[in-house]
């Protein structure tokens, strides 16, 4: 029969088809209405959480103890619907016109529960209407050991509240859900999840084609979801899907999973508390304001993004937290598939994929145009993060993109497998770093870039203590638009291979980096340059082979353990510098031209061999060893070998020359443009035979032969007779450099002191002595007297007030000078000094005395001349006569002496020798001049005669760094200097204002006997020579004079001297005190 109970407010019908014989108590179906019954069916109903455990409800109930109850609600019902019982089967349907709960109700509105060991089955719970409130299917008491089964839960319309299905309080019972389907809207406000599965709950199928929204869209805390399909939208203000301790076997998203929260704990999909998802397939959108997919404590097994699927997070698309696990990641771009214009892939504003400290992943595979993009790093492995499988990036259009960091950045992580970029894929970064392996990072399986249109847009960087444990291969037409940079303590254990028409810009090994394998470039491939500046003992331990037709430049200042070989048609440029070593030698067997430069201190072992048709050019200032046949250079090819310059080194023990031995069938095609003999510790007897320098070569092919010194030893070679002769030039030796420096500083000092002392002695101004006035005005540049007043007054009766008899000054000065220390090389230096002087006026004239100290430093390629000079002198000035027109004739004289303590250095390459002799300088000079007075101007022509004498002690050069002298040593004997010169000058003095005067002097010195004899010894050979000074020396002096008062005046001064061997510029400010 049909049993109905009609509610007084109308419309609500509960229908049960029952056996008429069992109506009364055997099977009761009773509808308690909240408005007409005040007895509670269940006064203590416990919910799944602590907050609602003690909630009491007056409700409408569906109750069955043994048999099934099927209920449909088609009207408004505000009371709670309770379903309970043991071994009962029930169903509940809310019709399209049905409504449970009032708007805004947050309490439980459907309560299905069981306790103890009860078994309860809910075959169907379908909502076609509106549910306002929570839906709870749970155990009602602790220690529940029974089973609750839900065959189908389906929402087709609107649920405004949480759906809770769970076993709480660690009960041992089970909740089984066959199907959970949502095609409507489920909106909740609970922070426990809008759809919340808890405990020992098993969901066979979860399908969302509608909208689920709340703080957490779907939460699984324990239990299992076998199949989770989202074709609708799951939205959360924190995390959209939270798996906290449970397991989802397969999650397929073709819709939208979006987290709108801004906290760093928010994600689209989040694993914590040991949660796992075995398989995610995303063809839709997973998006978050922080992380798209994250595991903070749990494990992902397989994650697949394909067919336009997108994972996006403002921090990272996918983040695997510290010590957590991501299994295999597959990203398939899907040919011509996009979602809202976005290519299928993983996107992050900082990181595309971030494996944090200690996390692990098995395999990352990007195919078919997929994208991994981050504005810092595309893929990042943090400290101790692990990728146990391979990283495979393949297919046209597939891209890993970084920004300010790298495309792929391994920051102290470990990649056990290899990184493969192939079949048109690209790794790029705006910073220029495509792949970065840093810190203690390791890539065990190496790196392979393969296939046409495959590119790395940026460098491969291995830095810090990072290691790459296998080969780096650029093959099959791939391009690296950047270089391989191994730096810091980075190590690359395998080889570097560029093959199959591929290209890479450069290979750089620097810092303490080490490349253990060889470097090979095959035919049709391209490597522009190799630079090795590593300080590691290993450096590049393998060979470098260029089989291509593209030019290769190799720059080495570290160690290359193998051979450098060119076998193709490409040109090759090899530079070995700064102590670099190429242990395996150099071989050119192709047709490309080869240029070899081996600089001072650098080494090429095992010789240089030419066996192709190439043109080879060699420049060697270092050391080149011999091959197994005893040849330094071997030419077995049809090409030619040109030795542009070769420094023949000297054995530091025996003084014998390391002979350049030329061999091979084509040795007659070896041409020598220049050979330089290293004269450091050379045995001069070795220089008598050309075969001690170079042998095997056609002597007619030998050009110039010289030495690497300053020119003191010169070699002359006659190719017709084969005769080699040795000449010595002391002018180019340390002796000549010392002489030129001594003359330069002495002459400059003499002219400079003339100017300074002249200024001081002219400063007197006596009011009642016409003789004193005339004397005070007579020398160039009277620095105190007012010329206009002086000229206008009567010379015999002038009265100027006070008398001044004494003048004192002290001043520092600085000189910049260019002197030819080494022949044909202008050397710059400077002098700093201080001078103090005193002058006094007597009836017999003006007398002056001065003393000073200066420090001079001069440097050139071959010599350093530093000295400290202590000097003193006397000066006298007097007016001889005065003409009727007021013109004056004056005389002046000076005597001087100086002690010069020399610090001499001779340099041959990196070798140095020193000596510290003393020099003594002395001299006298006298001058005669005349003052022509015209209004405010005074013009003073002058002539003079000077004697400059000097003596330098004998000295021997002592080696202090290596061997800078020839075998047997070098000694310069005592040198005497006796020079006479004449001087002419013209001075213009101008009185502009009472407190502004100026003086300009132009002049020249003519050396009468500009030659000096010198003697020295090289080894056992004594040499006599003669030095020559410039015949003419020009000078200029200027002064700007500012009288302060009768006792003080200030002047700014410049003195310059010029000759064919150099120039000197001295500036100083002078302050005089008169009393």
In short:
Keywords: Signal. The protein has 1075 residues and is mainly beta.
Features:
1075 residues, 39-stranded parallel β-sheet, 31-stranded parallel β-sheet, 3 helices, mainly beta, Lipocalin, 4% helix
Q: Layout of helices and strands, plus pairs?
A:
Layout (H helix, E strand, L loop, with lengths): L1 E5 L6 E5 L41 E5 L5 E5 L2 E2 L2 E5 L3 E7 L4 E2 L7 E7 L4 E9 L2 E3 L1 E6 L7 E9 L2 E3 L2 E4 L7 E9 L2 E3 L7 E4 L2 E8 L2 E4 L3 E4 L2 E7 L2 E4 L4 E4 L2 E7 L2 E4 L7 E6 L2 E8 L2 E4 L2 E5 L2 E9 L3 E4 L2 E5 L4 E8 L5 E2 L2 E2 L1 E4 L2 E5 L4 E8 L3 E4 L2 E5 L4 E2 L3 E4 L4 E4 L5 E4 L2 E2 L3 E4 L3 E13 L3 E2 L3 E4 L4 E8 L4 E2 L3 E4 L3 E8 L4 E2 L3 E3 L4 E7 L4 E2 L3 E3 L4 E7 L11 E3 L5 E5 L2 E2 L3 E3 L5 E5 L4 E2 L3 E3 L5 E5 L4 E2 L3 E3 L5 E5 L2 E2 L8 E3 L5 E8 L11 E4 L6 E8 L16 E2 L6 E6 L5 E6 L4 E6 ...
């Amino acid at each position: 029969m049909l049993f109905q109970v009609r509610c007084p407010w109308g419309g609500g019908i509960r229908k049960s088809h029952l056996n008429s014989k069992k109506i009364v108590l055997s099977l009761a179906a009773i509808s308690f209405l909240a408005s007409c019954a005040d007895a509670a069916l269940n006064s203590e109903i416990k919910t799944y959480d602590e907050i609602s455990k003690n909630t009491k409800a007056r409700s409408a109930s569906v109750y069955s103890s043994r048999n099934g109850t099927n209920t449909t609600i088609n009207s408004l019902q505000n009371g709670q619907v309770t379903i309970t019982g043991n071994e009962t089967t029930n169903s509940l349907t809310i019709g399209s016109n049905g409504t449970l709960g009032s708007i805004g109700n947050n309490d439980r509105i459907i309560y299905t529960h069981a306790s103890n060991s009860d078994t309860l089955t809910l075959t169907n719970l379908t909502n076609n209407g509106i549910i306002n409130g929570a839906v709870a299917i749970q155990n009602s008491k602790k220690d529940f050991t029974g089973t609750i089964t839900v065959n189908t839960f389906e929402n087709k319309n609107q649920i405004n509240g949480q759906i809770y299905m769970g076993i709480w309080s660690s009960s041992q019972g089970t909740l089984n859900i066959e199907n959970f389907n949502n095609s409507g809207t489920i909106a909740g406000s609970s922070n426990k999840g809008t759809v919340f599965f808890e405990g020992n709950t098993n969901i066979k199928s979860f399908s969302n084609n509608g909208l689920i929204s709340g703080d957490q869209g779907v939460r699984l805390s324990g239990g299992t979801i076998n199949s989770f399909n989202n074709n609708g939208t799951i939205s959360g203000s924190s995390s959209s899907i939270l798996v906290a301790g449970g397991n989802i076997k397969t999650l397929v998203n073709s819709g939208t999973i979006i987290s709108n929260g801004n906290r760093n704990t928010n994600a689209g999909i989040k694993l914590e508390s040991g949660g796992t998802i075995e398989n995610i397939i995303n063809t839709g959108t997973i998006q978050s304001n922080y992380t798209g997919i994250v595991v903070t404590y749990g494990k992902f097994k397989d994650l697949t993004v394909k067919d336009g699927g997108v994972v996006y997070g403002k921090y990272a698309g996918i983040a695997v937290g510290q010590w957590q696990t991501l299994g295999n990641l597959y990203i398939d771009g899907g040919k011509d598939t996009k979602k809202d214009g976005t290519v299928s892939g993983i996107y992050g504003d900082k990181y595309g994929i971030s494996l944090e400290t200690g996390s692990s992943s098995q395999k990352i595979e990007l195919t078919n145009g997929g994208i991994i993009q981050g504005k810092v790093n595309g893929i990042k492995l943090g400290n101790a993060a692990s990728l146990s499988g391979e990283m495979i990036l393949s297919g046209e259009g597939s891209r890993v993109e970084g920004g300010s960091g790298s495309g792929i950045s391994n920051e102290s992580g470990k990649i056990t497998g290899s990184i493969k970029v192939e079949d048109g894929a690209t790794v790029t970064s705006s910073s220029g770093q495509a792949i970065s392996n840093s810190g203690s990072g390791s890539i065990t399986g190496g790196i392979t870039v393969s296939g046409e249109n495959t590119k790395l847009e940026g460098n491969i960087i291995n830095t810090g203590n990072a290691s790459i444990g296998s080969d780096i291969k650029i093959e099959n037409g791939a391009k690296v638009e950047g270089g391989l940079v191994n730096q810091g303590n980075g190590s690359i254990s395998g080889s570097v291979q560029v093959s199959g028409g591929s290209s890479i810009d450069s290979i750089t090994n620097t810092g303490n980096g080490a490349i253990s394998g060889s470097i090979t470039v095959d035919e049709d491939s391209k490597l522009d340059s190799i630079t090795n500046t590593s300080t590691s003992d290993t450096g590049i331990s393998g060979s470098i082979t260029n089989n291509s037709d593209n030019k290769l430049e190799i720059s080495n200042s570290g160690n290359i353990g193998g051979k450098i070989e060119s076998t193709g048609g490409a040109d090759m440029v090899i530079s070995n510098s700064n102590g670099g070593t190429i242990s395996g030698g150099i071989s050119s067997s192709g047709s490309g031209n080869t240029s070899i430069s081996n600089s001072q201190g650098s080494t090429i072992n095992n010789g240089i061999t030419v066996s192709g048709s190439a043109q080879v050019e060699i420049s060697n200032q270092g050391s080149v060893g011999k091959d197994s046949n005893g040849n330094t250079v071997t030419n077995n090819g049809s090409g030619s070998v040109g030795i542009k310059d070769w420094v023949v080194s000297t054995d530091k023990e025996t003084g014998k020359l390391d002979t350049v031995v030329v061999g091979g069938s084509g040795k007659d095609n070896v041409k020598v443009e220049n050979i330089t003999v290293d004269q450091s510790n050379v045995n001069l007897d070795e220089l008598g035979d050309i075969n001690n320098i170079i042998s095997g070569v056609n002597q007619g092919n030998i050009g110039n032969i010289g030495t690497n010194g300053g020119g003191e030893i010169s070699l002359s070679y006659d190719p017709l007779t084969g005769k080699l002769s040795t000449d010595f030039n002391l002018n180019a030796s340390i002796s000549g450099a010392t002489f030129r420096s001594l003359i330069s500083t002495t002459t400059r000092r003499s002219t400079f002191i003339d100017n300074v002392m002249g200024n001081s002695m002219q400063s007197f101004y006596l009011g009642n002595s016409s003789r004193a006035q005339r004397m005070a005005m007579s020398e160039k540049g009277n620095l105190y007297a007012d010329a206009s007043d002086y000229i206008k007054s009567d010379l015999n009766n002038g009265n100027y007030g006070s008398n001044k008899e004494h003048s004192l000054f002290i001043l520092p000065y600085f000189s910049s000078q260019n002197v030819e220390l080494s022949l044909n090389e202008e050397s710059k230096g400077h002098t700093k000094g201080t001078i103090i002087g005193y002058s006094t006026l007597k009836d017999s004239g003006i007398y002056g005395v001065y003393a000073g100290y200066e420090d001079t430093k001069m440097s050139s390629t071959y010599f350093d001349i530093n000295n400290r000079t202590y000097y003193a002198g006397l000066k006298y000035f007097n007016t001889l006569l005065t003409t009727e027109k007021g013109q004056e004739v004056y005389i002046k004289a000076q005597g001087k002496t100086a002690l010069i303590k020399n610090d001499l250095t001779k340099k041959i390459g990196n070798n140095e020798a020193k000596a510290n002799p003393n020099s003594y300088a002395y001299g006298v000079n006298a001058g005669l001049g005349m003052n022509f007075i015209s209004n405010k101007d005074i013009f003073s022509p002058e002539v003079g005669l000077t004697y400059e004498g000097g003596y330098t002690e004998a000295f021997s050069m002592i080696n202090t760094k290596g061997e800078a002298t020839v075998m047997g040593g070098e000694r310069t004997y005592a040198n005497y200097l006796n020079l006479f010169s004449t001087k002419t000058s013209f001075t213009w003095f101008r009185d502009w204002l009472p407190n502004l005067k100026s003086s300009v002097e132009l002049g020249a010195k003519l050396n009468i006997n500009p030659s000096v004899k010198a003697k020295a010894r090289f080894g056992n050979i004594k040499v006599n020579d003669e030095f020559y000074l410039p015949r003419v020396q020009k000078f200029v002096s200027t002064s700007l004079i500012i009288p302060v008062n009768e006792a003080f005046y200030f002047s700014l001064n410049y003195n310059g001297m010029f000759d064919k061997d150099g120039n000197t510029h001295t500036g100083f400010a002078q302050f005089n005190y008169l009393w």
